[in-house]
Amino acid sequence: MSTVNKKTDIRSLSLETLQQQFIQLGEKAFRAKQVYEWLWKKSCFSFDDMSNISKELRHKLQDNYTINNVKINSSQFSADKTIKNSFILHDTHLIEGVLIPAADRMTACVSSQVGCSLTCKFCATGYMERKRNLNPDEIYDQVVLIAQQAQQNYNQPLSNIVYMGMGEPLLNYGNVLKSIERITAEDGLNMAAKRITVSTAGIAKMIKKLGDDQVKFNLALSLHAANDEKRNTIMPINEQNSLMALAEALKYYYQKTKNAVTYEYIVFDGFNDNIKDAAELAKFCRHLPCKVNIIEYNPISFASFINAGEDKIEAFAAYLRKQGIITNVRRSRGKDIDAACGQLAVKEKAAAVELAS
Asked: Domains in the chain and their CATH numbers?
């Protein structure tokens, strides 16, 4: 009788564990490596499609394991060619992920949690309840599905990944790092770590842990104010992770990894858009090598913030550049389908139940 007596999510197992279980099932250990390659390198979602595996073993796999793969629930196409996806998980929860095409790159924006617990006042996801963390394979699947869309719709390979969708990646630390390990592994998707950016609202102790783990991917901090009083107002996480604590953690991270950091800064009209705000940001930038991405704000129904005017944004950026800070102004993509930064919030609960039933 098999010691594997209930269906296990096969992708939750390491190769070593899978090899041990295969031996218990009366199979050779090398078969586990074949299956592992189908799961991760070939992104196979069905045991039936594993063509070099015997029918007998495929039956054993179906009896003992499951592949809890993510499926596309719906897709919306923006006028600027951005594609927003609603993904359905095995337990009927919904998340969102976005393909952002540009002249020089194809970027997947992926989620790390179902909902979010951080309640940032300008972000639609922050008004959702956090239901649970995503597993590594659920993050990986978003990348696979969005990469397929890039090929099918634009005949281009996926070039970049940003963990800037729903959720706070550093509050799902282990699963996020495991997903990146699978995405970058030679027996996974084999993408370069430098093509991956993880964005955080700022959790100091976890930023230090990134340094201890000497990660190779890029780190972005959603800053949006370099003044504790203002940042507390829009990002309650700052009350436990002050700018001083974040600066200390980021310096530690840089000492350990030698990776420059990107600061994301939305310029809100009448809130953080004057030259004094720019001067505070420039001062914060002196802690370590960095660049600033000024991001266009995308209004949401839950909040009354609006984007600063073009002249203010340009003056803000010009001030930073005069201070010697690399500064980019990022234009929003997918606004017409609520796919832009800060707009991801699932609205299709009924569709999830219907698709799963």
From this structure: 8-66 (1.10.150.530), 71-351 (3.20.20.70)
Per annotation, catalytic residue among 96, 138, 264, 296: 96
Q: Is 123 a catalytic residue?
A: no
Cα–Cα dist 82/165, whole Å:
14
3-state secondary structure of 73: strand
Is 348 in the active site?
no
Write out the DSSP string of 163-215. E-SSS-GGGGHHHHHHHHHHHHSTTTT---GGGEEEEES--HHHHHHHHHTT-
Please give the helix or strand (H or E) that residue 99 lies within, else none.
strand 94-101
Instruction: Let me know: does 78 contact 336? Beta carbons within 8 Å.
Output: yes
pLDDT at res. 80: 87
pLDDT digits (tens, 9 = 90+) for 154-201: 999 999 999 999 999 999 999 999 999 999 999 999 999 999 999 999
Backbone torsions φ then ψ of 37, nearest 5 degrees: -65, -40
In the numeric block, which tokens belong to residue 323?
Answer: 């201070």
User: How is 228-262 classified by DSSP, letter by letter?
Assistant: HHHHHHH-GGGGTS-HHHHHHHHHHHHHHH---EE
- The answer to whether 18 touches 36, Cβ cutoff 8 Å, is yes
Residue from 109, 116, 120, 341 carrying the catalytic annotation: 341
Instruction: Collect contacts of 178-181 with beta carbons under 8 A, ≥24 apart.
Output: 178/136, 179/136, 179/137, 179/139, 179/140, 180/215, 180/217, 181/136
Q: In the predicted model, is pLDDT for residue 343 greater than 70? A: no
